[in-house]
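Q: What residues go here?
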């Protein structure tokens, strides 16, 4: 349950969510480093003793030095989801696609865990996602991706090796693109 749903302050709840993404990014950074993969954590929320404050230029320099770049802290502002933060960073960094790991293996007409008649989509446009009101990402994130020509790849994070399989062209996902 979120703080806001329990009658608390939405801004405080969003700040807690941003901090949680920083903790997750630090955990991912440590896991990558243990495997010999050099990485950097950039946060939209300044916390210089823990990680770097996001700067497009510094993030690009890290990428050019073959480092994995981990973005945390969402947009740094309340009332924006982590999806919006991901779409914003993808646009700023000129990413070729935005991958969304979720609990199901793509986008469906309804929640397949609740509706046995839900239909899975292999491919659709950003406009389709928005006009159908599909809840895969918030509308701001989908619109930002659309406006910047960024395809979305929605896959199940629950499936072992799903991300790697998709990168190899073998995985199961829904592609959202306007080509």
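A:
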């Amino acid at each position: 349950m979120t703080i806001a749903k329990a009658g608390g302050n939405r801004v405080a709840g969003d700040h807690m969510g941003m901090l949680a993404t920083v903790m997750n990014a630090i955990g991912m950074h440590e896991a990558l480093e243990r495997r010999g993969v050099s990485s950097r954590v950039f946060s939209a929320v300044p916390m210089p003793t823990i990680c770097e404050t996001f700067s497009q230029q510094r993030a690009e320099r890290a990428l050019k030095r073959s480092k994995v770049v981990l973005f945390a802290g969402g947009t740094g502002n309340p009332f924006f989801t982590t999806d919006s933060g991901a779409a914003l960073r993808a646009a700023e960094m000129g990413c070729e696609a935005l991958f969304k790991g979720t609990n199901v293996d793509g986008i469906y007409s309804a929640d397949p865990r609740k509706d046995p008649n839900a239909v899975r989509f292999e491919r659709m446009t950003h406009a389709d996602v928005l006009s159908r009101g599909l809840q895969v990402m918030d509308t701001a994130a989908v619109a930002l991706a659309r406006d910047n020509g960024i395809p979305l790849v929605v896959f199940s994070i629950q499936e072992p090796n799903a991300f790697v399989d998709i990168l190899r062209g073998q995985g199961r996902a829904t592609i959202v693109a306007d080509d």
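A: Context that may help when evaluating the design: Residues 161 and 167 are 10 Å apart (CA to CA). The mean pLDDT is 95.
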